């Protein structure tokens, strides 16, 4: 009866662990999808910012092209007028005007180069962002396609585990089951652990000798006095742990006996 209860408690613990994993999966799957949606929204915002910059740069480039062409026309007209200037004062005035326009155009040329370089950078940023968006979009579509199927399978498995849990609970006395539930709510897994060589596998601390002796008797389900987890002697569920050392011990004397017999046989042969 004791062994049956221990076995059912271990089964119950395994079922509860599976239930936790499934519940976590059911909870996390939609969050994973929401995370990808959030990434997509951020990508859209970044794309909007890049597009806005590109619009400004393109307008700036058009303005510079227009102003450069307009001033180039003015310079050409000024050069034509220069040939018809009647006095030195007018000549110098027109030369100053032309120098000013040429200097302004040089500055515009430099600005135009900077705008062109920035346009190239923004185009590269657009290409990189498009590639990133494509990868996340694929993930999102794949996850969205399989999400309902995954959740349906997880819920079906959860129902099956719920039935298995009820069956295990029936095989455990209510007081022991109550202790199990109490510990599980308040402590990290596992709830029921084996003890080998007097050491609890839950807290890895040696239990008192008296408790260890009572545990080996297998009359009642005990708790570890250190961590309060339910404990059982591992040899109760795996009796071969006790039998294997005994078999090895018997095998060694036979080997020694054969070894001693060989010299006597040789001695007889010599006589």
Average pLDDT taken over every residue: 82
Level-2 CATH architecture of the largest domain: Orthogonal Bundle
Distance between the termini: 66 Å
Silhouette: rod-shaped
Strands side by side in the biggest sheet? 2-1-4-3
- Largest sheet properties: 4 strands, mixed
**CATH class value of the largest domain:** Mainly Alpha
Can you describe this structure?
The chain is mainly α and 271 residues long. The protein has 2 domains: 2-170, Orthogonal Bundle (Helix Hairpins); 190-265, no CATH class. The chain is 82% helix and 5% strand. It contains 6 helices and 4 strands. The protein has helices at residues 2-82, 88-170, 174-186, 209-217, 234-237, 240-270, and strands at 192-196, 199-200, 222-223, 230-233. The protein has a 4-stranded mixed sheet. Strand 3 (222-223) and strand 4 form a beta hairpin. Helix 1 (2-82) runs antiparallel to helix 2. It is rod-shaped and about 130 Å long. Mean pLDDT is 82; it is low at 241-271.
Keywords:
Helix Hairpins, mainly alpha, four-stranded mixed β-sheet, 2 domains, 271 residues
Quick recap:
This protein has 271 residues and is mainly alpha-helical. 82% of the residues lie in helices and 5% in strands.
